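Hi P.,

Sorry for the delay on this. The queue was packed all week, but I finally got your sequence through. Input first:
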Amino acid sequence: QRHITKVPYDPIIPVHTVWDLGISDDMAIGFYQVSGLEPRMIDFYFSNGKPLDHYVQYLKEKGYNYGKHFAPHDIRVRELATGKSRYEICQQLGVTFDIIPNLPVQDGINAGRGILGRLWADEAKTAYFFDALLQYKREWDEPHGHFRDKPLHDWTSHAADVHRYFSIVIDQMRNDSQTVKQFVPHFNY
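Then the structure:
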């Protein structure tokens, strides 16, 4: 439907972020704006091997006017080394998350399929995201000769999880003036 095209950032509409906190230190962030019933993915970022303050600084450098930040429930898990959760660490850095409901993976995948036809996306900034989404697949059970019910966890999983989470929280991405805020971190470099 030619929805993957040039989709510029609209400074009047808040940018909501959806995060996937990967196993080990992989991290993916989707940047979304919603205009009426039209969801727009204006940007995507994926990296690994970097501390949380790197990702918070990345948000600041984008210069977007942010609305809400969404993260999965496991952001509240406390790290053994520090005794703090990633939720608490990010909050100290200036990002407070809304927690995404912990739904069965298949429910999220179905929701993601349902919204994909409505989503507009910036072709240049989301190329990696769509490359991963197109290659996301279920796990093959060789001994039994069929696909398992769960998706294969590989490099595509983080983008797919961002999309799955986005489809769950899109109704919470409001554009009222209460939501929009200029990002101001609570740390200095």
